[in-house]
Amino acid sequence: MLKFAFRRFLGMIPMLLLISIVIFTLARLMPGDSFSGEIDPTNTNPEYIAEMREKLGYNDPLPQQYFRWITNFIQGDFGKSTRFKISVSEVIKERLPNTLLLGFTSILITYVLAFLMGMYAGRKPYTLGDNLIGTFNYLGLSIPSFVAGVFAIYFFSYKLGWFPSNGSIGIGMKEGTIEYWLSRFHHVILPAFVLAFLNIASYTQFLRNDIIENSRKDFVRTARAKGTPESKIYNVHILRNSIIPLVTFLGFDLVSIISGAIITETIFTYPGLGQLFLQSVGTRDYPVLMTLTMLFSLITLIGNLVADILYGVVDPRIRLD
């Protein structure tokens, strides 16, 4: 297992190097550059613009610019945000806790509800409860996240008044108090559920179908013939085999912890990394945009590694040599 993880980790290095080249190239192909976001070309002396571009190295050959950027990136220098006028690391540090809270809450809601509903529907297929869960699943699979977000705000925020429609904290809350954390969780519940809505539906349906399929296999018939209690058959034999595919999804879900959901955070005006990414595209804040893209790529690779390792842990038949 350790050898496999180490080999995969080493394999991530050339992949990240290739991704960095693609990100740098795309950033250079986009209109303008980092300096464009700091000035107004219509009201600035062209000679000053040319002098600053030369001073900042924007006229250097592209390989030299890339090497300088990637060297600074590895050393933790992500540059300065052209929009916020502070270092990129400070901008990300300010938004990161909100995205972590949103992501972890969304994953917790996803797996708790999917596990409970999938187990019930799989053990009691074609009943009224199974049909109701199936209706929920089809709605979750068919409704886009931005539509679900708008309806959630309309019903639960404006009509019922149960949850806030925007922001991540109430006004006037003192940091560190119980009221502060209760307000944060109150603000995150609704966007987290909208973010988890599609995954809940797909994971529930997947687990339900897999439980039904595994319940018809020979090893289950053998266990029943030996007089094994039905609860043990479902909880040990069937469930353990059925959750293996869901474990692989956990690695990919880890990406949402950092990246969040761009659409969901934008709809709820939730100040996280997803909203910051979208804003950086619109304002041409290339230092923030490039850093977030590299960060999301790194987390994606780590998520894939975690999924492979968990796959081997859950299923003892799989050996990662």
UniProtKB/TrEMBL annotation:
GO terms for biological process: transmembrane transport. Pfam families: BPD_transp_1 (PF00528), BPD_transp_1_N (PF19300). The keyword ATP-binding does not apply. GO terms for cellular component: plasma membrane. SUPFAM superfamilies: MetI-like. Residues 96-307 form the ABC transmembrane type-1 domain. The chain crosses the membrane at residues 100-120, 132-156, 188-207, 243-268, 288-314. Keywords: Cell membrane, Membrane, Transmembrane, Transmembrane helix, Transport. Signal peptide: none annotated. Belongs to the binding-protein-dependent transport system permease family. PANTHER family: DIPEPTIDE TRANSPORT SYSTEM PERMEASE PROTEIN DPPB-RELATED. This is ABC transporter permease.
